[in-house]
Structures are given as C-alpha cells and as structure tokens.
Amino acid sequence: MQRAETAFQFKTVSYLLRIGSEMATTLAQLKQGLESCSDASIFNHTFQTLSRHHFLTQGFSNDFAQWVLASCNRPELAEHLASLDIRDYLSLAELRADLKRLVSEYCEQNPQQAEQSAFEPFFFYEAIGVEVPLEMEAWTLEEFRNGLEKLSHASFHFHFIASRLRLQLRTNDFSYWLESRLGLGTLARRVNRIDIYTNTLQSALERIISLIEKELDS
Amino acid sequence: MSETMPIPLLIRLDDYTPVLGEPEVAELRTLASRLQMRTVQMVNSTAMGGGVAEMLNRLVPILQELGLAIRWEVITGGNDFYEITKAFHNALHGGPYTMPPESFDTFLAYNEQNLLRLQMEAEFIVIHDPQPAALIRARRDHIGHWIWRCHIDLSHPNLTVWGFLEPWVKRYDGAIFSSAEFARHLPVPQYLFYPSIDPLSEKNRDLEPQFVRSILERFSIDPKRPILTQISRFDRLKDPLGVVRAFQIVKRYFDCQLVLAGGGASDDPEGEAVLSDVREAAANDPDVHILNLPPWSATEINALQRGSTIIIQKSLREGFGLTVTEGLWKSKPVVASAVGGIPLQVIHKHTGLLAHSVEGTAYQIRFLLSNPAIAERLGQQGREYVREHFLITSSAKRYLTLFLHLLSES
Q: Which of A94, A126, A158 is the last residue of a domain?
C-alpha cells in the first residue's frame, strides 16, 4: 500500500456564536447589514448554514435566502440568493460582494418591498471557530478511510466545506491530500464533485468512504 | 450562607453515545483535553426547581467527567433578598418595580455576604442570572474570566432595575443570552447559547410504546384517533383558549382529540381562573382532555408527548419554549407561534410549522393531518435539529468552546 510522505492530520473545529451589532427588519436593512457585518458573520450565515442544517437536503442554502423567503416572502430574491454556491468562492469578500449585489439590485427594482417589515427580524451572528487537532492521522488510503469513519459532522465540514477558504483553491482538504500526497487525481476529483447541497453531511461522507473503498478494492 | 452543591454522577458521558454517536462524544473529549483540571465555578441562586438548576444538575457532571475542575455554588439569602430578586425578575421582563430604593442596598449586601463564604478564584467563573451578578465585585486585577449567563429576556426591561444592574454586567468579560432578541447593547462580547434538554431525563428518555399507551388510557385518551397536544402551565400567555378555538376549527374536518396538559393551577389564583375559562370554552367536549398535572409528572408528560400526533405551542409570548424542544426531540410535527425563541427551533416547513393566529394554527394542523408523510418528515428533521443544537451535550460543547476561546484571547 502506498504511503504518503506527509500524513493527513484530522482536525475538528467548534464554533461559538457571537451576537453581532447588526440586525435587519427590512430588505433595505439587510443590504446595510451585508455591507457592515464582519467576515465572521458572512461565514456563519453561508458556510456554517450547511453545518447547522446538515440533515436537510433541499431548500436551505444559506440563512439570508431562508430569511428572505420565510420572513419577507420574496421567493424570487430568495432563489437568487440560494443559488450562490459557496464552492465558487475562495474568499468571503467575493461572496459578500455577490450577496450585496443581489439584494441591492432587488431593492432598487422594488423600492416598496425593500422597506416592508419582515415577519421576524434577521440577527447577524459571527462564528468564532476554535480548531483542535484530533488524535488521528493517516499515512495510507486505508488509514484515511478509517479516519473518515470516525469523523464528527463538524470535523467533516471543516475539511470538506470550509477548507476552500483556507486553501484558496477550488478543492477541499481531502481531495488536495489524495492528489498531492497519494497521486490519486481521479479519486480526488470524484470526491470534490460530490454535491454538498443535495446531500446531507452524513450522506456526503458516506459517498466519499464508498469511493475510497472502490479504490481500495481495485 | 452559600453552599457548594454535591455533583450528581448517575449518568455517564458514555450513556450519550447511542444518542449522539461516537464521533460527537469523542469530539467533546477532544475539546476538553485542552482544559484538563482547569478550574470553573458556576454560580446561581437555587439548587432545585427552575430551569437553570435543572440544567446545571446535568451540565456540571458532564464537564466534571470531561476533566474540568468544576464547582457549582448556590448563593443564599433571606426572604427579603428573594422578594427583591423576584421583583427584579418581573421588572426585567418589563413589569413595574415597586420595591423601595433601599432594596438595591439590600441586594448588594446579600451579594457581599455570599462573597465572605465563596472563594471566587476559579479560572472561569460563570454567574447565572441577576441574583449573583454583583459577585463580580470580588474580582481583583482582571484575574480569571468572568461571564454573565442571562437566562431571561432583557429586550424590554424596566429601566430602573436595568440601570442598577447594567454597570455590574459591564464589568464582565462577556455575556451569554439564549437569543439575540433577548440581549441588550453592551460594551462586552455577547454570545448565543441555546437552552437545552437532557435526552436521558425522565421527561425525554425513550419509553416503551406499551407504556405510552397505558398512560393515554389512564387519562381516557383514545390512542387510535389523532391526538393534538399542548403542554404548558395554565397561563394566558400560553393561549390555551386559542388552542381550544383552533381545535374546534380542526374538528370540523377531522375526528381528533385535544390534550391540554400542564400545572400551575393549584397554587396560582390566575392559573385557576385560566383553567376554569378553558373548561368553559371546551364546553364538556369529551374529546378535550384538560389535565392539571402535579410537578412530579415528567414521565406522564413524556408519554403524552410521545403518544401525540401533533404538538402545539400557541403561545402569545414565550421565553425559549423548551416544551417545543421536547416535542421536536420526540420526532413530533410541531405547530407553534412565531414568538420568543420558538422560530429558533421551528424553521418553517423544515423542522415544523409556524403560525400567527388561531386560524393559522388550525390550518397548519389540518395540513399536517392531511399530509402524514410531510408531518413525519418534519418530525424527523426536527429531531435532528434538536440533536445538533438543543441537547445538554451541545451546551457542554459551547462552554468548552467558550473557555478555549477565552484562553486563546488571553
């Protein structure tokens, strides 16, 4: 069995939610909040949404889209916001710019709706992460598979979803290691293609394990 | 004066593995591995009764088993102290404050007295609610991390009482609230910690279906027909009359039963009046079961929730709404008002259905009775949401994360 020169170090992260100073009761205020809130807040309401609602497979893309739909009853804007795929972004600044653009355009085209009060206010929260290495590392594909089987949802989200912002690459920690350390480019690409919006975190993890098992069997 | 509570050790962390899965329990141990023998003090004002004591009874043993050197201290005081703190509590919820001005001195004197007995020297000190808030005067030279955990809704406080408390709260390193809506603008970081339930407690542990059925039959409830249940004390803010009206609308379309179960009517004149009004509104309908239960009815409440088809929480105002959490944990579809902490738990069309009126509540119930597959999906997703966010183990994880964060900041 091939042994990597550098081990994959499994880590986990736990998040605190800090209450931000921004809140919105209208779409116009949402636009202002998107301009002034911290990056930790943008991260929380987009990347972290997938972790908090990891068991849902439809209709919950990010907190902004959900609020616009459920509290403002604006399905068109909600759809646009929900269609932003966090895998397309390597920085929170880019993601924030697109969120702002979509809400701004809607407000300009629909000035009356922009000022209508929502059923419920939107509160901006910041996610403060504390990273901790797990006592697990993998040198081989088999050890890697064994490690994946013991991962919590938070740890899986950290390596598979939030990793893009750290790596500044359109990939994830798993695919990066598989390709760069074990030379398994095809497997790495298959792993990276798994749709995180139509899978739960658990089903995505199971699919990765299944792909690795096929590779081990071959 | 104050007392250190013995730490109960009946339930072990491993007992949560079947509920959470091994990776999640292992993650708690990993986080705690960096906090071994770090000292923590939790301080509140009551050892028994009330949600805070109930939560600490579970949380403290978990954190101790995880290796933290944790102590739970309960402050004490005379009747005059508790009269003042009860008046504080009501005033912080927005009511008037009618105690004399010297009551503030009495409050401070009792806090000072408690300090004579308490050794406030842990690395992390968490003060729960207003009663012991002034203990922070014991802090010297910014030693230790002091956090104020506020379990009550401070969104519309009486300004006299808040004006007195605010300078004390500002001296803490941070404050914790159960919802952003309950918080105040403060110059210290504010964190969101949801309240939680214990899945292994009498009120929430799994029950055998036969036992559930026997409880239903004991209360003359027909297990074969749909059961709509609201568990709440008989209080106008829980709108039991609205629930009866919603049920009466639903009953035009479905052969179903209503269970209104709760306490608070035996020792509270207002509760007695509400109960009487509810009985009158029910107009001797044999399908309306009004159960005034004693406080030791946790198992019965568990069984009633588990035996229900739909859980209702039609409150007009609500704190966090832990009865909603309990219903969701039991995989029940929930129809609830969009007030207080309920929308944090019931995400409309994902983990339950929200309503804003009697008619809306009735409509959502009819929708679920007509669409059992959707009701089942909502129930399952609701349980998963609670598993992730509103269990006592999630609270333990939040405290561990907070302590690690405070260490990294310092």
A: A126
Instruction: Please report the pLDDT score of residue B7 as a whole number.
Output: 57
Asked if A28 and A109 sit in the same domain, the reply is yes
Where is the domain boundary, A74, A108, A126?
Answer: A126
Q: What is the DSSP string of B287-300?
A: TEEEEE--TT-HHH
Tell me the average pLDDT across A107-123: 95
pLDDT, tens digit (0-9, with 9 covering 90-100), for B192-214: 999 999 999 999 999 999 999 99
Put simply, the answer to whether B402 touches A54 (Cβ < 8 Å) is no
Q: Under a CB-based contact definition with an 8 Å cutoff, are residues B51 and B74 in contact? A: no
> Cβ(A25)–Cβ(A72) under 8 Å?
no
Domain containing A188: what range? 8-13+134-217
Chain A, nearest residue to B191 by Cα: A18
CB contact under 8 A, A23 and B177: no
What does residue A196 show for φ and ψ, rounded to 5 degrees?
A: -80, -10
Same domain for A159 and A83: no
Nearest Cβ partner for B408 among A130, A150, A153: A130
Two structure tokens written together for B48: 């028994």
Residue of A nearest to B342 (CA): A120
Which of B338, B347, B385 has its CB closest to that of A119?
A: B338
pLDDT of residue B265: 57
Q: How many Cβ atoms are within 10 Å of B48's Cβ, its own excluded?
A: 9
State whether B190 and A18 contact (CB < 8 Å).
Answer: yes
Q: Which of B350, B356, B397 to mutate to test the interface with A (most CBs of A within 10 A)?
A: B350
Q: Which CATH number fits domain B209-389: 3.30.1360.70, 3.20.20.70, 3.40.50.2000, 3.10.20.30?
A: 3.40.50.2000
- For A130, the closest of B180, B385, B405 (CB atoms) is B405
Pairing of strands B124-128, B39-44: parallel
- State pLDDT tens for residues B218-275: 999 999 999 999 999 898 989 999 999 999 999 999 999 999 998 765 656 778 899 9
Residue ranges for chain B with pLDDT beneath 70: 1-9, 49, 264-268
The Cα–Cα gap between A209 and A214 comes to 9
- What is the token pair recorded at B98? 């009618």
Which positions in chain B touch A10 (Cβ < 8 Å)? none
- Cβ atoms of A124 and A33 within 8 Å: the answer is yes
B381 touches chain A (CB under 8 A): yes
Considering only CB atoms, which chain A residues are within 8 Å of B342? none
Identify residues of A whose CB sits under 8 angstroms from chain B CBs.
Answer: 12, 14-19, 21, 23, 52-56, 59-60, 66, 70, 119-121, 123, 125, 128, 130, 132, 134-135, 150-155
